[in-house]
């Protein structure tokens, strides 16, 4: 049996994924977490073979979960199932060791096949996205991305500094660097462009 944990913040999608995968004779759904922090706790407690996760969730994103799994060298393979057909997300997912990346519009049987393939050590990546992923590199570093994401949520430079334990000047420098790299006029435009490209 391939043991799965699901992480998805939308209850209806979570229930549907759990039901569909649970019908497969060789797959066992151990649990379904409603946010990233709960998923991280469940991962450590249940030790599944494969994590099937959305990207955007409260707490930790699917990408952050994958990064933690990679950092701690946990023997858990990750598949992302998302609505975001953005090359930037796929590149970051691959960098975090994700082996599967499917869109939510994919047929259910494709997900079950992806779970089997990834569990066996293969990759299951949406082919059109895979081609696009290498067309444009993400110019932002992790800190710039973090600061820009918080700025896009409406936090001031002072608030961001407090939240990330940085100085006000350092935050302004990161924002300025991000704006310059993206070739836009201000932090809001930088946030919008980076979101559109899948770099946040």
UniProtKB/TrEMBL annotation:
Source species, domain of life:
Bacteria
Residue ranges of domain HTH luxR-type in the record: 133-198
Q: What does the record give under GO molecular function? A: DNA binding
A Pfam family this chain is assigned to:
GerE
Which Gene3D superfamilies does the UniProt record give?
3.40.50.2300
Q: Which residues carry this modification: 4-aspartylphosphate?
A: 54
Residue ranges of domain Response regulatory in the record = 3-119
Q: What keywords would UniProt list here?
A: DNA-binding, Phosphoprotein
What protein am I looking at? DNA-binding response regulator
Q: Source species, please?
A: Pseudoxanthomonas gei
